[in-house]
Write a structure and sequence with these properties.
The complex is a heterodimer of chains A (220) and B (338). Chain A is mainly α and 220 residues long. Chain A is 79% helix and 0% strand. Chain A is globular. Chain B folds into 2 domains: 3-205, P-loop containing nucleotide triphosphate hydrolases (Rossmann fold), CATH 3.40.50; 219-336, RNA polymerase II/Efflux pump adaptor protein, barrel-sandwich hybrid domain (OB fold (Dihydrolipoamide Acetyltransferase, E2P)), CATH 2.40.50.100. Classes of the chains: A mainly alpha (220), B alpha+beta (338).
């Protein structure tokens, strides 16, 4: 069995998850605390990938990230490479595509924090950033675990966006879902079955682990 | 004596807080008022949590400790880590952690998770945590109101000790007049966002013109010293500037703070004989003020102390009681507050 697509998927999902947690946490925090009239606007934009067909997102990403697009042309100037049909392009696409899956659990966790608890931290001498890192984040750890597992699993399972933006370049953009599709197209059902089974087991283990951890923390 | 200026104005929907006053920079200042009078808002303004003005320091730079109604301990940290939280963030002032832990008797709790603490223990830990941040001022927002009667009585002695042993000024907010009588030295009465009375505890409590200090809140506090304990009848004799008072039970505290509720005092023109009332003392009427359609509050002078009595308007007229008259006060019950 050719495992390269699987490893590429895991690499893509890991990089995406790390980026989404790091950038998604402040965004989730803002969404949970803000009383700005822009908050619902941003909230809606973040949630859009859940509703839109992946092809819509993929199509516009292809346009924007392509060598003539706003970001793509800048990237070509900077690196000499194109963003589309590259691993970096896939990471950008995955981050947008999985964003709601990272933001929503973290935002929920932040929203369930008591504001008085944070006020206590401030009055004890913690700046807003300090209180965020030393109180809000540790108390929301379950939200972080959920966010990480969901964005990892969701990135692992993406197909449409990858196909549009990344294509099917072995070792660069040929992730496991594309590989399975490929195998089916060439009527190699055995190989498709093997990769699919691996994904099924992996998805179950990841989600089971997450719910187990959540339950442990709940009963604490 | 140096003082702290409180100047805060904030509009919150219909409610408007407008306070400009000075309180002593030592001891406990009680802030009394019904719910909705702006007590908590005042504390939040002082801490910088509400109505922060441009240019005023941010909350975390103020070094003003805040004890919340519910302890607000951090549940992901141990008791010890909770106590160290504020200390680490306010370096520069050496903190006698062990002494503070002993004062509030939390030494035995340090390794525990905060989820294992009782309500009273948690509030003691939160007070220790505030003391360890070496605050310049401590704000307490009804710290006992979330506790049941038993837990409250369990924590009160620690607040007495805190009062006796710390030099940090404390502002103590409560709608419970008994707590205020026990703990505070100075009193601020708030109503609808404004200060309606302020001053020393005894002087302010003996005001009879304030609706906030009428009804079940009416009554005075006097400072007394324990004279002796009568074992045979289980009574303690206290002496104060206006005479001597018998109090049921054994009380060792001296100087003691005695609370006499307005409804526990009656007046008579002549010293009653053959009565079951133990405490009958001569007094002079200072002032009277109508309380309800049926009742009047009477301020009485006994030596250097004052008491407040509630009598019916009918009795006032029948006995023709006026300011300056000599009367006898009959005191039915006295509580030792401290």
């Amino acid at each position: 069995m050719n495992m390269a697509p699987l490893f590429l998927s895991i690499k893509l999902a890991s990089v995406t998850t790390v980026i989404l947690i790091v950038l998604g946490a402040p965004l989730s925090w803002w969404l949970s605390q803000s009383r700005s009239r822009w908050q619902p606007v941003v909230q809606a934009i973040v949630a859009m990938p859940i509703v839109l067909p992946p092809t819509v997102l993929g199509f516009y990403l292809l346009v924007v990230l392509g060598p003539h697009g706003a970001i793509g042309s800048w990237w070509v100037q900077l690196t000499g490479d194109t963003l589309t049909f590259s691993f970096v392009g896939l990471v950008i696409a995955s981050c947008l595509y999985s964003l709601p899956f990272a933001v929503q659990p973290m935002q929920n966790a932040f929203e369930s924090l008591s504001r008085k608890n944070l006020e206590a931290a401030w009055t004890l001498g913690a700046s807003k950033l300090d209180a965020f890192l030393s109180v809000a984040v540790p108390l929301s750890i379950r939200g972080f675990v959920s966010a990480a597992v969901l964005s990892f699993a969701h990135t692992l399972g993406e197909f449409g966006v990858v196909l549009m933006v990344g294509g099917n370049i072995p070792g660069e953009t040929r992730v496991v879902s594309i590989a399975i599709y490929d195998h089916v197209e060439t009527l190699d059902y055995a190989a498709a079955n093997q990769l699919s089974l691996v994904l099924i087991v992996f998805a179950f283990v990841a989600l089971f682990g997450m719910f187990l951890i959540n339950r442990r923390w709940q009963s604490r | 004596m140096s003082s702290i200026r409180l100047k805060h104005a904030i509009q919150k929907g219909e409610f408007c807080l407008d306070v400009d006053t000075q309180i002593p920079a030592t001891g406990i200042t009680g802030v009394f008022g019904e719910s909705g009078s702006g007590k908590t808002t005042l504390l939040r303004c002082i801490a910088g949590l509400d109505g922060s003005q441009r240019g005023s320091p941010p909350v975390h730079e103020r070094r003003i400790g805040f004890v919340f109604q519910v302890p607000q301990l951090f549940s992901h940290l141990s008791v010890q880590k909770n106590i160290e939280y504020g200390m680490r963030r306010n370096p520069g002032t050496p903190v006698a952690v062990n002494e503070i832990a002993r004062l509030l008797e939390v030494e035995g709790l340090l390794d525990r998770s905060v989820n294992e603490l009782s309500g009273g223990e948690a509030q003691r830990v939160s007070i220790a945590r505030v003391l360890c941040q070496s605050p310049r001022l401590i704000l307490m927002d009804e710290p006992l109101s979330a506790l049941d009667e038993r837990r409250r009585n369990e924590v009160l002695p620690y607040l007495d000790r805190l009062h006796a042993e710390t030099s940090v000024p404390i502002i103590y907010v409560s709608h419970n007049i008994e707590e205020i009588c026990r703990l505070s030295d100075h009193l601020l009465v708030l109503d609808d966002g404004k200060v309606v009375a302020e001053g020393g505890l005894q002087d302010t409590l003996s005001r009879i013109d304030l609706p906030q200090l009428a009804g079940r809140n009416a009554g005075a506090v006097i400072a007394a010293t324990q004279a002796r304990y009568d074992e045979e009848y289980d009574l303690t004799l206290f002496s104060f500037s206006g005479g001597e008072l018998w109090v049921a039970g054994r009380h060792e505290s001296t100087p003691a703070r005695l609370r006499i509720s307005a409804s526990d005092i009656s007046l008579s023109r002549v010293a009653a004989e053959a009565t079951t009332i133990l405490n009958i003392l001569p007094a002079v009427i200072e002032a009277t003020s109508p309380e309800t359609a049926a009742t009047e509050l009477v301020r009485l002078r006994l030596g250097d102390d004052t008491l407040v009595a509630r009598i019916t308007r009918r009795s006032l007229q029948q006995l023709k009681l006026r300011s300056g008259d000599d009367v006898f006060v009959q005191i039915k019950s006295v509580t030792v507050r401290r």
